[in-house]
């Protein structure tokens, strides 16, 4: 079963605001604008994301699950992250579920106030076993050059 949480009514206003601020150089706690080529149309699609730095590597976590940006990133095999005028092209490496617990914990420590509602009561204090149990519902990508 694929896990996906649709945006609630009105959330697009917040997403558009964060995207606009980040696109104009005002990153909010690590926010970036992710641009990925659409898998069906080939047109670029942009979404605000939280870029997690953990043990010297950078990651994108999809708290809503199998979103359109996740599906597009898998299909395209590349994307762009933007803050202001700085644009970075990257290739994603999707992590196996067993590699996710420490990253999900770090993500929740940093952004639980923003994304906690998508984790069904699981927080940064959860056991590795619990984080491994929920890992299949949360795609995680390592950013590579």
Automatic annotation (TrEMBL):
Gene Ontology molecular function: any one: oxidoreductase activity
Coiled-coil positions: none
InterPro entries: F420H2_quin_Rdtase, Split_barrel_FMN-bd
Protein name as catalogued: Deazaflavin-dependent oxidoreductase, nitroreductase family
